[in-house]
Every structure is written in C-alpha cells, then in structure tokens.
Amino acid sequence: MNQVRFFLNKENKAGYQKIGELDQLGKESSINDTIQELIKIYVSQLNGCVFCIDLHSKEALSKGETLQRVLGLSAWEEAPFYKKEERVVLAFAKEVTFIHRGGVSNKVYKELQECYSEKEIGELLLLVTTINTYNRVGITCLLEPKVD
C-alpha cells in the first residue's frame, strides 16, 4: 500500500468541483444507471484505478447489478450476459479510453448509432471522459479503497 500523495479535492477544490459538475451531468443524463455503472467499472479496469473499480462495483451492486456481470466486465467480449446496447457502449468506452490507438473506429461509431441517438452518444462520451478524468486523479494521487 502506498501513502496518498495528496487529495485534489483539498488542494484544488474548485478544479475538483468542476469534475464533479461533469459527473453530475452524466448522472442526470438519459443513460440508465446500469450502463453508467458498467462504463465506470470497465474504464476503471482499463486504466487500473483500484479506487474507482471498488467504488463503482459496490455502487452497481447496490443498484441491483449482478455480481456475475460486474465480475465479467474484464472479459465482456466473451461473456454471454451483456446486451447488444451494452456491448457497443463498452467497445466505445475502450476506444475512447485508448484514443491514442487510432481513435474511435467507424465500425464502433456506426454500431453506436444503431442503438443510440446523437444526444445519447454525447452523453455516453461525457460519461466515459469523466470517469477517465477521475481515474487519472485517483491513480496520480495514489488513492486506495478502504479494506472491507
């Protein structure tokens, strides 16, 4: 275990509050809670942010998500228990998170358009970019979850 470097919400309260405002916009979007939590867990797995993985896994379970689906996120492409709309969101989240690997492909974007409106795609993008921001804060600051 590492010692926390600093708390951004203490050292740059205004900046941290702005991230929180983006997060609140995402929570108030038309995207359902299940997909929101799947995005937050999966992107946090991709980035290796244990603090956010722990936080959002617990949040998803408290909202009625199944343990099987939470645990299966790291292998969603092989798992049979995700709907088409969830699969395309997870593919999109991966491509946005790894934007440096060629951006969001036309294939994934077309599949996204088959399931979501442009407004919803914008909301999904906001959700993905916000959790990526939180992951970078958590990892840089060395945030760790409390042991249950």
TrEMBL record:
Listed GO MF terms: peroxiredoxin activity
Bilayer-spanning residue ranges: none
Pfam families with a match to the protein in the record: CMD
Keywords: Oxidoreductase, Peroxidase
Domain of life: Bacteria
Matching InterPro entries: AhpD-like, AhpD_core, CMD-like
Domain Carboxymuconolactone decarboxylase-like: 28-95
Name the UniProt record assigns to this protein: Alkylhydroperoxidase
Source organism of the structure: Enterococcus rivorum
